[in-house]
Structures are given as C-alpha cells and as structure tokens.
Design brief:
This protein is of the alpha/beta class and 343 residues long. It folds into two domains: 93 residues, MurE/MurF, N-terminal domain (Udp-n-acetylmuramoylalanyl-d-glutamate--2,6- Diaminopimelate Ligase, Chain: A, domain 1); 209 residues, 3 Solenoid (UDP N-Acetylglucosamine Acyltransferase, domain 1), CATH 2.160.10. The strands form six sheets. An eleven-stranded mixed beta sheet has the order 10-13-16-19-24-27-30-33-36-38-39. Strands 8-11-14-17-20-25-28-31-34-37 form a ten-stranded parallel beta sheet, with no helix packed on it. The protein is flat.
C-alpha cells in the first residue's frame, strides 16, 4: 500500500515541508533510503545522511535546522523517534495474519476464544482455556488447561504455556518461551533428591514482553508474578515464586533464583545472577555480569561479583588493574627491608 506525506503527517500530527503528495510504500534507515521509502532522523549522529539520502520522506524533530539543501520531503513532529516507532507498530500490525482459526489447530470444546483471534496450524488449546479478543497465536503453540489470556496478546511460534497460568492483555511472548514449567524444587532424601510438587502458577500482568527462549517457572505454592510493563530479553531464567515489579527490564542471559522479589523500574544488565530469597528495591540498576548475593536498597547502582556499590567498584578496579605492578613494588620493598635488617 502507498501513503502520501500528507496522510502520514495527519496520522502523526506533524507538519509537511516539501511535496505533500509524494508517495511511499516502505520503510528504511536514513543511510539506506531509496525512492519510495520513509525514514526518520532522531540521533544527531546521523544528521549528515539527511543531505544525501534518497528516501522520499524523512520524519524529523520540530527543531531540526537544515544546514544544506534537503531533497526529501520532511515531516516535522515533536519527537521523530516516537513518531517512527508508532509507524513501525502500525506496519507490524498490518503484516500479521488475518483473524482466522486454522483447520489444523486443536481447540478443546470447553475452551473459549474471543472474537478476531488468529490461531495458527498445529496449535493446542487445552480444556477450559479462556482467550480474549484480538489475540494472535502462531503455529505450534501449546496452551495448557485452565489458562486465562487477556485481549490483544501475541504468542509467536513454539510458545508453551503450562496449565493454570494467567496472562493479562497486550502480552507478547516470542518463540520458544516457556511459561509455568516446574520450579527447581528437590528435597534431599537419604542421599537422593526427591521432587517437591510445584502446584502454584505464573501470573503475568498487562503489557509484558518476553524474549525468545526465556523461561518463567511456576510457583511451588501461590504465584510467580511478572508485573505490568516488565520487559524480559532472550534466554532469561525466572525461578519459582519470583516477583518482578512494574516496568523493570532485564537483559539477556540473566537468572533470578527462587522467591526473590525485584522492585519497580529496575534495570538489570545481561548475564546478571541473583540468588534466591533476596529483596531488590525500586529503581535499582545492576551492571552486566554482576552476581548479587544480598539485599539491595532502593535507587542503588551496583556492579561486580559479588556486587557492591558501583562507585566503590570503580575505585577498587583502578587498583585491581595495577595489582601486578603493586605486587612487584611490594616484593621490592620486602627485599629492601630484609637487606636493611641484615646490614
């Protein structure tokens, strides 16, 4: 489909500068722009590209001042990045499948599926499952018995949701995500480990996004809880009875052990390990590859393994990098002292 600069500006609430009737049919990066494409300029680092891009239309901030002639039609908006993100989301929605239930999907007779749902081939929808409106479930997805799913969710191919889990609205699960697998519960018993039944579930609130191959274990009792707005990257392990607060983000390859509570608005870097039964406060930042073994108060920034205050860590690291030289100096001092004592 083609859209004119005027139509796009109206959608974004922007102002056209140039040919309002120029048409675009695709999106592009500004440095790779071709005729018929729409791009954007938000980062000043990319400003030189706007003077030679071939993109037909470029979205820019209201305060952009051209220092050279620009051949592209401009659409001025308060925030070019946010405006382009809005267009990307609309474009993504247009690319998704129409509302249809594939003939090769299995849906239990007792399950309830809301209107305008897409359910792909070889999906399995178990007994007493409730699925909201406008939900898209891609092929080879499994949804266990008694699971409840809100409106406007998207589950990509190969997602597995075990029984009795509860998911809110606008939840996105990428391929390979497993929700509600057993927690790692085993009790020592005469030299062996006896499995402890995991009879809780996973509760995921609205607007959560979970990256590919991330796993969230069900609670032993009660709930493993992922609060509203949480974003989890790929390859993350969330253990049983963990709670993650609103709008917290966690990068790839991190792991959170059982019963730890993480607060709101936290930012956790990649490959972070957090042991069990801790309390991580609100607005905490944990640098990548940190190992957290004790409670963390609100607003702390920590790094290291074991992790501690980032200021102390950086000061200590200055000396750590000099340890080899410091060891030589100490060795020289010891020899000097011994020589003085023997003289």
């Amino acid at each position: 489909m083609e859209y004119s600069a005027a139509q796009i500006a109206q959608l974004l609430g922007g102002q056209v500068e140039g040919q309002a009737d120029v048409k675009v049919h695709n999106l592009s990066k500004i440095e790779e722009g071709k005729p018929g494409t729409l791009s954007f300029l938000a980062n000043p680092q990319y400003t030189p590209y706007i003077y030679n891009t071939e993109a037909s239309v470029v979205i820019v901030n209201d305060d952009f001042i051209a220092e050279q002639p620009v051949s592209s039609t401009l659409i001025r908006v308060p925030s070019a990045y946010e405006a382009f993100a809005k267009l990307l989301e609309l474009y993504n929605q247009m690319q998704q499948e129409e509302a249809v239930i594939d003939e090769h999907a299995f849906i239990a007779p007792s399950a309830k599926v809301g209107e305008n749902a897409y359910i792909g081939a070889f999906c399995y929808i178990g007994k007493n499952v409730t699925i909201g409106r406008n939900v898209k479930i891609y092929p080879h997805t499994y949804i266990g018995n008694n699971t409840r799913i809100g409106d406007d969710c998207t589950f990509f191919s190969g997602v597995k949701i075990y029984n009795d889990c509860v998911l809110g609205s606008k939840v996105t699960l990428h391929s390979g995500v497993i929700i509600g697998g057993d927690g790692f519960g085993f009790a020592p018993n005469q030299g062996e480990y006896k499995k402890v039944a995991q009879i809780g579930n996973v509760l995921i609130e609205d607007m959560v996004e979970v990256g590919a191959n991330t796993t969230i274990d069900r609670a032993t009792l009660g709930h493993t809880i992922i609060r509203k707005g949480v974003k989890l990257d790929n390859l993350i392990q969330i253990a049983h009875n963990v709670e993650i607060g609103e709008n917290t983000v966690i990068a790839a390859q991190s792991g959170v052990a059982g019963s730890t509570k993480i607060g709101r608005n936290c930012m956790i870097g990649g490959q972070v390990g957090i042991i069990g039964h801790l309390k991580i406060g609100d607005n905490v930042k944990i640098a990548a590859q940190s190992g957290v073994g004790q409670n963390v108060a609100d607003h702390q920034i920590i790094q290291g393994s074991p992790a501690f205050g980032i200021g102390d860590y950086k000061r200590a690291y200055v000396y750590f990098r000099k340890l080899a030289d410091m060891a030589k100096d100490i060795d020289h001092l010891k020899k000097y002292v011994q020589k003085q004592q023997n003289s």
